[in-house]
Amino acid sequence: MYFYRISAYCFLVGVTLIMTIFIQDAKLNGHSSAYSLLFCLLFSFCLLNYFVDVHPNIAEGLQISFLIE
Question: Rounded to an integer, what distance in angstroms lies between the CA atom of residue 12 and that of residue 52?
């Protein structure tokens, strides 16, 4: 589960940052700010922190309950 979390964070935050760059370039005519990209990067990491941790915790709980039986 540890490697899943690391790879999911890297992939999802990277995809979110790339999408943010494309959206900002389209809306601001190529004048995106480094501060706004940093803010979007931190915000996406904090938001994805909840969603990425939910799936491994549920899977780990199911695995433990099956192993107990």
Answer: 9
Are 6 and 41 within 8 A, CB to CB?
A: no
Contact 49, 6 (CB under 8 A): no
Contact 21, 37 (CB under 8 A): yes
Closest CA relative to residue 5, chosen from 51, 61, 66:
51
Write out the two tokens for 42: 């931190």
The conformation of residue 28, written as its DSSP 8-state character, comes to T
Q: What is the pLDDT of residues 11-64, one digit of tens each?
A: 988 898 899 888 888 888 877 788 888 888 888 888 887 877 777 778 888 888
pTM: 0.66
